[in-house]
Amino acid sequence: MRDDSILGQLATHFLLISLLAVGGANAVLPEMHRQVVEVAGWMTNEQFAQTYAIAQAVPGPNVLVVTLIGWHVAGFAGALVSTLAMCGPTCVLAYVVGGVWYRFREAKWRRAIQGGLVPLTIGLIAASGFLLAEGAARTVPTALYTAVTVAVLLFTRVSPLWMLFGGGALGLLRLI
Amino acid sequence: MVPLMAASTVPSESAPAKTASGEASPAGSGTERPTPSLRELFVGFLSVAVVAFGGVLPIARRAVVERYQWVDSDEFTELVGLAQFLPGPNIVNLSVVIGARFRGVPGAIAAFSGLTLAPAVIVILAGTLFARYSDVPAVSDLLAGLAAGAAGLVISMAGRMGEPIWRRREWRDLGIVAVSFIGIVVLGLPLPWVMLSLAPVSIALAWWAIR
Fold it and tell me: Is B66 within the bounds of a domain?
């Protein structure tokens, strides 16, 4: 019985969070933290921070922090329920809106919305990149490595993976 | 170190070898874009997900636009805008919209599963391992270097997406880019506020520009 109620709470929590997540999973991280640490007490502050770092360090969508929180709270079932609650309803919405979007691609209202969202999107991605860079810059060489990565990826066709592996290797050698 | 690595990224495997799956697209003629099969959608998003450290979007852009050429660059930026405006994880929304466009509901499910299944297993394994080795300093050094590269990756993606606007000197759009950036980074405003206040302005400006 107790497990059922925890799964129910996870489902409700992440379903509500997902509907707030305009702009992506990172945008609702403070709200997740409030619920998981302060309200429900499922994790300590340190556990939450570590969980986030792990989810960032492994490959894949950053919504995986939700999977890991669910795993921590209620094992496999928790991971499954949390992930599906976070992704399911919004996927259905994306499916429906995506179809309508494509069908009306010549309509003026659609082109205006589209044209208006493009620069906003670019600004927001630039902003989250900058915030990530700020968080990652533990030393001056670390910040320099970020700048070098930006330049290399903007002006060459080097695969981003090499810049990530390079960063990991330099970090491991304590050079940045 | 760089030139050696550059060679591997030239998109050479895009056009041929499309017949590998039985469900090849009927349109074989000239300039038409290939229609990916369910298997190609699954494998495509899987191959993006398992190498996407620190953010899927830049890797997805390379794969979907440059390697597989399922959508063109402008369309990708539009789809990202749509995926961001909709609630929910952006990249998940993007996979659903792209999968659905080519193969309906099964396509959406194929793209979504490709994107999330393997990474979910990996993150749980990593979480279990990290709990055991959390006190090894090399682990945190590695993560710190990885994070520095990942941040550069995201910034450069914004640069690439903004290139057409910059090249056409569209000051209206550049203004929106600047104001949204300042709102988040300098003023520290919550993202929903920035989106909900700037989106109507930006859309109205776009509507006015179309006339």
Answer: yes
A-B contacts at Cβ under 8 angstroms: 392
For the entire predicted model, the pTM comes to 0.70
pLDDT by residue for chain A (176 residues), tens only, comes to 455 689 999 999 999 888 877 666 766 776 788 888 888 899 887 778 777 777 877 888 888 889 999 999 999 999 999 999 999 999 999 999 988 888 888 889 888 988 888 898 888 888 878 877 887 788 899 999 999 999 999 999 888 878 888 998 999 899 88
Same domain, B91 and B174: no
By the 10 Å C-beta count (0-12 exposed, 13-18 middle, 19+ buried), A98 is classed as: buried
Q: Are residues B90 and B132 in the same domain?
A: yes
Which ipTM did the prediction report? Answer: 0.74
Task: Give one DSSP letter per residue of B51-118, joined into a string.
Answer: T-BT-SHHHHHIIIIIIS-SS-HHHHHHHHHHHHHSBS-HHHHHHHHHHHHHHHHHHHHHHHHHHHHH
Contact flag A158-B126 (C-beta cutoff 8 Å):
no
Task: Residue B184: give the domain boundaries.
Answer: 169-211
How many structural domains does chain B have? Answer: 2
Q: Is residue B3 part of a domain?
A: no
Residues B63 and B113 reside in one and the same domain:
yes
Distance from CA of A2 to the nearest CA of B (A): 23
